[in-house]
Structure formats: structure tokens, C-alpha cells
Amino acid sequence: MHIVMVTNVVAPDKLGGLERYVRELSAEIVRQGHLVTVVSKRTHELQPLQEEFADGVKVQRYEVPSKRDPLFVIKYPFSVATGVSRAISAAMVPHETGSTIIHGHFPLPMIYPLLRRMPYVYTCHAPVHKEILDERQDSYRLPAIVQDAFIGTFKVVEKLVIRSAKRVVTLSQFVCDEVVELTAKPPEGVTRIPGGLDTSWFSPEPQPETREPAKGPRLFTARRLVSRTGVEELIRAMPFVLEQKPDARLTVAGDGPLRERLQRIITELGLHETVHLVGRISDADLRDWYRRADIAVTPTRTLEGFGLSTVEAMACGAVPLVTPVAANPEIVGKLSSLLVAPGADARGIADGVLKLWQAPAYTSLRASVRSEVHPRLGWPEVCRQYLDLYRDVSKNTGRPSAAGGLGAEQGLRGGLKPAPARS
User: Which of 158, 164, 320, 360 is most buried, judging by how many CB atoms fall within 10 Å of its CB?
Assistant: First the structure.
């Protein structure tokens, strides 16, 4: 099969959860003997429009206007639709056998397949119209009247894209409920396939370090520094934790528009010796921090579509603590109620940390968390479920062709610049 992934941005162009999900799923599909082309916008002028990575994943990028353009909001949708049209056409490599499946992951780039009535699969990672302002407030700000119109239009597009998909996939029951609310699609019309991760990479220390029992927990979180991820509440929880466990420490990895504000809060609360913002880190450093952590906190305030950072931590053997928000409890709830904090505010997070750290069950939880995600959430198993879905869709809809507006003589074979994959 040839899978054409249509998304907003793909890793390594951007290293968010959705971007990595698309990239790593694509790599696993290639490992299982199929062809994958990712259609994604260009985020830097030095990025080639066509690229093939060392693991066989091909990327077809398209141009979008600069965010500095005063007419950016007006131009952007048309640029995306035109760019996706050209990129999909270039990606459609003729096959003697097999099928081509279009698989969307973000609403706006799916306008072209939607308008051309192309059959496609769509994975809804989260209700994008609800999180777009919080996630992108560092990119651009809009006058209130324009902002409201923009979000309203985006909601309509997202609803149409989901309702027009041949199959809709969500990564959690929480997102399934959001899809049902947005589109009135019956729950049985939504397929749940969990998020995946590389459990061979995210794994415990081969030879765990020998260390003295800690008097206070070493806390770690890897989060984008925006309001919905709850990092501010986690930092504000530290004084409550330190009252009982003065040796506790918190490390925060990640970047975003709230970084300066969070640094000010750390200073104001006198936490400069106990809370550290380390910024963006490599995958190797991320894994090391997970391995060293006693508790990996996911302090989400709203809209956690799956909880990738939580399962990464669990795969590395770190005991997770999540807030009772969105999809978080779905990941850890079967293991123990201790892994869900009483609330998403500072006091609730602090109480959750202290209760978990002092619980007799903590040691046994640390020994069992990896088995909850491996191999069930490893890419081979998640990919198998997608391949079964693709085959079912292909059998019932056939493959896109030139008659559907996708005829393209020029594909991505040959002449593509290789790029190194993560070792």
C-alpha cells in the first residue's frame, strides 16, 4: 500500500506530540513493507520541498505565507489548499499492485481532499479548534472580532473534515466523546486506536543506578509551556510539596510562550534551587530524565488527547502522576487511583505527589508501569491496527486515481536528499 499522510507539520521540522506521532507511525509502516509519503507544510526556507529520510519515509512539503504578512490569516487557508493539492498530486506514485490511502491528521490541510470528495481516513488527535489559540499564542495574535471568526470557521472546517472521512480514528475515549459532540457522529462510527511510541527506545536503564533512598521525590515533566499543559500549576504546587519533603526537586523540559512568566514565578516563590527549566532537550536527554525521575508529572489543565509524555515516562520505568483531566486517567487508571491527582490545581497536584510518594504501593508501581505500555502501545502493535483499517477502507472504497483529480506522472522516486534518522 501507499499511505499519504496529510498533516500540518511533521517531525523533525517540529517536535510536538502530533508531529512525532505521524513521523514514527510512518516509519513503522515503511518497516512493515509499505510506502509512505507525508504531506506537510514547510517551516523554514532551507527545507527541501521533497525529502526522503534514511528510514524510507518521504516528505512532500508545500509553501505557506509568512506569519509576518499582515494578510496572513486571509492568505493562509488558500495557500494550504493549493499547496496540499500540488503535494498530493506529486506524491501519488503509480503502483502496479496495491492501494493508495489518504490519511489526515489535521483539519485545515484536509480541505483539498474534502472538496475533491476523495476517500480518506482521519485521525482526530484532539479538538483543534479548542486548543489552537493556547498552542499558538506565541505565533500570532488577532483582534478579538477576527479571532472569534477565525476560530468559528476553523470549527466548521474541522467538523466537515471529520464527518466526511470514511473512517475516523481517535486515540482515547475522551477524544471520541469530543468527536461525537462536534459532529453528532455515533460512537460506534469512531475507531479507537491508541497512541504509539518507540518502546525499544523509551525503556528503563539497562543497569539501574545504585543510589541512596531519596528523602524527597525527583519530579520531572516534559511539556510545551502553554497554559493548557498546567506547568504553572505544577510549579506553584512545589511550596506545598516542600513543606513536607524539603528535598524534593522538579525539572521541567520544554519551551513555549510562558517560559519567561514561569521563570518569574520560580523567582517570586524562592524556588530557584528546587525548580529548574531546562528548555528543549534531545530525545536521549529526555529518556535519561525519565529514567532518573521518581515521579513523572503530567499536570494538564485541559485537552489532553492521549498523553504521550505519560506513556513515554512509563515505558522508561518512571511512576506517572496525572491530573483528572481529559484522557489522562484512561492511561493510568487501571493501575492505581494513586496515579491520578485529586485536582489540577496547585494544591491538588501537591497532594497527589505526596500521597503517591509516601504510599507503600509506590515500589510495586515502579516495577509494573512499563508492562502497562509495552508491547501494547509499541509501534508494531499500533501500526498493525492501522494496516487492518487501511485494508478495510481500500476494499470498500477503491484507490484514488487520476479520475479523482490526482493523476501525477512525477512522483518522489529518485533524486531525493537523504536525512539521518534517530539512532
Answer: 320
Mutual orientation of helices 379-397 and 17-31 as an angle, nearest 10°? 80
Which cell numbers in the block locate residue 273? 534551587
Helices within 6-71 (DSSP H only): 17-31
Mean pLDDT throughout 25-54? Answer: 96
Nearest to 222 by CA among 355, 315, 334: 315
Give the burial string for 187-205 (b: 16+ CB within 10 Å, else e). eeebbebbbbbbbebbbbe
Kindly report, residue by residue over 295-348, the tens digit of the pLDDT. Answer: 999 999 998 999 999 999 999 999 999 999 999 999 998 999 999 999 999 999
> Residues with Cβ < 8 Å from 175, sequence gap 6 or more?
124, 125, 126, 127, 305, 306, 327
Length of the chain as a residue count: 423
Say how far residue 336 (Cα) sits from the centre of its chain.
25
**All structural domains of the chain with their residue ranges:** 2-196+378-407, 218-373
Q: What angle do CA 14, 18, 21 make, to 5 degrees?
A: 100
The whole-angstrom separation of Cα 142 and Cα 73 is 9
In this chain, the answer to whether the domains covering 2-196+378-407 and 218-373 adopt an identical fold is: yes
pLDDT tens per residue, range 342-397: 999 999 999 999 999 999 999 999 999 999 999 999 999 999 999 999 999 988 87
pLDDT at 210: 58
CATH architecture of 2-196+378-407: 3-Layer(aba) Sandwich (3.40)
Identity of the residue numbered 111: I
> pTM of the full predicted structure?
0.88
Fold of 218-373: Rossmann fold (3.40.50)
